[in-house]
Amino acid sequence: MKSKLVVMGGSFNPPTIAHFRLMQEAVNSINASRGIFVPACDSYVRKKLKKLQCQNETLSESLRLEMLGSFCEKDSRFEVSNIQILKQRFGHDFEMLEDLQEFYPECEIYFVTGSDKLGVLPRWHRINEFLEKFRILVAKRGDDIITGSWQKFTFTIPDEILNISSSLFREKLRNNDESAKNLVTPQVWQLMNKNGKIPWNTIDKFRDEYDFLSNFYEAEITFDGLTYGSNEAAFQAQKCMTHDEKLSFTECRPAKSKSLGRSVNLRPDWEAVKVGLMTQIVRAKFTQNPELGAKLVATGEKIIIEKNTWGDVFWGVNARTGQGENHLGKILMQIRDELRSN
User: Fold this and answer.
1) pTM of the predicted model, to two decimals?
2) Can you tell me the distance from the alpha carbon of 240 to that of 238, in angstroms, rounded to the nearest whole number?
3) What 3-state class would DSSP assign to 324?
4) Which of 96, 174, 274, 306 is most buried, by the most CB atoms less than 10 A from its CB?
């Protein structure tokens, strides 16, 4: 007798306790040996959220995979597949299940869908082949009436998770509603916070009370023997290969420094050394200006993100897409930790 495998696809943006409990119920209902979460690719999620005018709330593929991975630590029967992400597919559940069948040839595959989707089932991609090769496992509300062949493989959604969804979670975050925390597991919440996705635990605007975090904030620093009026000037000067070239930045305001930095004869090792130099310069700013160091420490445990509108995804995060490596934010948090420990 073949072992049974339950597959649940979705955006999981983010995965909620409803997804976790739903998979448990699905696996238990047919005594399956494992349950596999298959998150959609970034482009699919982004397109979906763009229609809702909240594209910037798209979580990265790596973060969604990590969050789902935390589910597997809670229940050893669970796994996560990145097959849709690897192939960058828009939906196409049939092809996804075919791929999984190759990995698990000994298993009978059950695909989870809501009872509200049964009406549109005939319009599913390659539905006839789908029903020949795989089974549909229907998740229904307590008062739903399932008729025909669908009655054979159904399970009831627990009442306590009926109204929990990723969209509700995002709405609560948008409204700074701390009850959002109740919709996800503690592990998912920690990952959201660690990645700067919890608004009230995040600093992502370097203006007003947090203007001092910006490299454009004018505070004198001495670096490598020269004194500059801002971190921006000091950093842009390091692109140069000679002392005289660097000297020209000592009298520049931040905006002028950035502009001038685009036209210098760039040192050949710039890409390899720029993060280290930025770290040294940020450290100099907050150690040579103790009042600024105290303000940085006073930000506590807040996640610092250099969110910007000019599309920088290396030093910061693109405000439109929500994507970026945020190296400047990470450096600021590193220096904060150093100051706190001294």
Assistant:
1) 0.83
2) 5
3) coil
4) 306
